[in-house]
Amino acid sequence: MDLSFAQTHIETEIHKRDENLREEPPAKKPRIENKNSAEITKVSKEDVPSGSVQQRCSPRKRLDIRPLNESLQQKSAILPKKCKQKFIYGNYSKYYGYRNMDKVFHDVRLDVFNAYCDLFTEKSVLDIGCNTGILTIEIARRFKVKSIIGLDIDRHLIDQAFKALNRRKKLLPFDNESKRMEIFPFNINFVHGNYVLKDDVLLEIEKPKFEIILCLSLTKWIHLNFGDKGIKQTFRRMFLQLKPQGVLILEAQCFNNYAKRKRITDTIYHNYRAIEFFPQDFHTYLLSAEVGFKSCELMGVPDHSKAGFQRPIYIFYK
């Protein structure tokens, strides 16, 4: 074969191949399906040398160039602080702890009651605002009451009262006769509820149930939460629930004691500003025809180390 002809033939074939290559589109690379592809291509800040590439981020993040610690400090400042618990009904969970100020329970009001121990013997008693029931239980133990019911508006406090009562019961022998005879501590019960009625018309169905009603350091909280109308209704209901010759034992807070708690809620503040029936008027009202008590006497003044707890205790006789 002539070499010049062979060379011409080869060049013609190469030219055709090049033309075909230019006309054919480049083959697509097969797509690799990988669920973790985002994780594979993700590069952390630590893996990239500073200044080597420009990091892409959202405009919001590009504007926020503060140090991490500074951002956390400002976020924590924005978060609301833990709100202090408000005991709007005087339902302090550790009331007896700060009132009695000692590890061994001793309420100085019991010293006042001691002079009238015969008043409690074999009587049915209602203790309104009993809190955790410690004083209620101690009255039942000391004065041999026939029965006593502790009432409180706070369900949690009533639960604590039942726990304290059950601890007392567990200390007794299994075959103890106290339960059968319904004497201490089986003559004690606790009830959760609000003593203030929703409507005065409900007073019409009240019947005498108790021989003694205790209202100790409670009038301020009824007054602030339910106003003049609420405290007056409470006094009338107490009278109606007492049996003939029954007694109300009342330890009321003075009006000066109200101001410190007047801003707990908007309702309390409104009631405080609207008060026209003051604690110094309680005696006159209780002895009036609108309620009906016939007489009263000073039971005593607790000898407490704090003047705020040296509140006179009165007995009102039906």
UniProtKB/TrEMBL annotation:
The keyword Iron-sulfur does not apply. The keyword Secreted does not apply. Pfam families: Bin3, PrmA. CDD domains: AdoMet_MTases (cd02440). It is an enzyme of class 2 (transferase). InterPro entries: Bin3-like, Bin3_C, BIN3_SAM-bd_dom, SAM-dependent_MTases_sf. Keywords: Methyltransferase, S-adenosyl-L-methionine, Transferase. SUPFAM superfamilies: S-adenosyl-L-methionine-dependent methyltransferases. GO terms for biological process: methylation; snRNA modification. Residues 10-48 have a biased composition (Basic and acidic residues). Residues 1-57 are annotated as: Disordered. One of its GO terms (molecular function) is O-methyltransferase activity. Its EC number is 2.1.1.-. Belongs to the methyltransferase superfamily. This is RNA methyltransferase. It comes from Glossina palpalis gambiensis. The lineage of its organism: Eukaryota, Metazoa, Ecdysozoa, Arthropoda, Hexapoda.
